[in-house]
Design a protein that fits this description.
- By secondary structure, the chain is mostly helical.
- The protein is 75% helix and 0% strand.
- Helix 2 runs antiparallel to helix 7 and helix 6 packs across helix 8.
- The termini are far apart.
Amino acid sequence: MEKLALWGAIVNTLAVIAGGVVGLAFRRVLRGGEGKLGETMEKCSDAIMKGIGLCCMLIGISGALKTEKTLVMILSVIVGGIIGTLLDLDDKINRLGNFLGKHLTGKSGKASDFAAGFVNATLLFCVGAMSIVGPMESGLQLVHTTQYAKSIMDGVMAIVFASSLGVGVLFSGVSILLYQGSLTLLAQWVQPILNDVVINEMSAAGSLLILGIGLNLAGITKLKLMNYLPAMFLPIVLCLFM
């Protein structure tokens, strides 16, 4: 199976789904009580959510500080935000999440929770250097080491995310398969332009999105982060001139 170029993306997808299932089981425990026990469990769930937010902020800040071309990152975020807003990416992905939530849960009231889990997990698992380097290694060399390492980390994060955000986290696995699978198949074409500098700046821009996820989960902001997703890819162009 390791001779299959998409094997790394498949393993990553399965790891997130498996972690999500474990997280959902834990979520039922947290929300299974009544009375004072139920209130305590609900407080624990809220504490987990905000704790994840703090961890995401730490990861985002540490990653963003690794930029070597601050102007590239600033322009990427500004221009990427404009592009995403004009395309209304955040609304489209949330509508997709709500659509899936309504049809899979059968309850419109839970659709927004599904969408929140789907969108936040998709962003977290699809940004960062490992999300770029791993698929390229799989596509060019049939080496999946980076993908395996990422799968372990994502699986653990999926447990924590699903325990707070619900079943939508599992379906972010589809996003991983589509995103990383596409990059794996396109590896021979994109490899020449994705040098170390470009990957570093893409990772820094992606880290800002992770910081935004943390701020949203902690209840500090309500950023429409999907609108900033194009910022992660703009360094490919900007690094050619700056």
